[in-house]
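hey
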């Protein structure tokens, strides 16, 4: 069995789409106006984004992007900080990891 897709409800589809493409290399598969976008990772998993007025995920909800090395985690962290995101630096927890609040109202974990 293979996971086919995950849908995230977001307040700003365009901003969430651009964020995921810019920092995590997702590819745009299609979109409908400003209310829906389908993104794909290198393994063919689809992440869909749907527009909603209010987004209220539980405090611990997040999606994660695993990296091949701690250096790659540090590189993504530096790019995000340079682009104005206010985030705590990576730390050793269950992995070398940090979290960032993505545009659109959801949290992303980056880890190696």
């Amino acid at each position: 069995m293979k996971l086919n897709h995950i849908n995230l409800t977001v307040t700003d589809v365009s901003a969430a789409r651009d964020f995921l493409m810019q920092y995590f290399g997702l590819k745009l598969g299609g979109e409908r106006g400003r209310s829906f976008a389908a993104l794909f990772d290198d393994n063919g998993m689809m992440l869909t984004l749907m527009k909603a007025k209010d987004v209220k995920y539980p405090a611990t909800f997040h999606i994660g992007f695993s990296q091949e090395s701690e250096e790659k985690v540090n590189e993504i962290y530096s790019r995000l900080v340079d682009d104005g995101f206010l985030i705590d630096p990576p730390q050793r927890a269950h992995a070398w990891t940090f979290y960032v609040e993505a545009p659109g109202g959801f949290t992303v974990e980056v880890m190696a």
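The longest helix spans residues 70-82. The CA atoms of residues 15 and 103 lie 6 Å apart.
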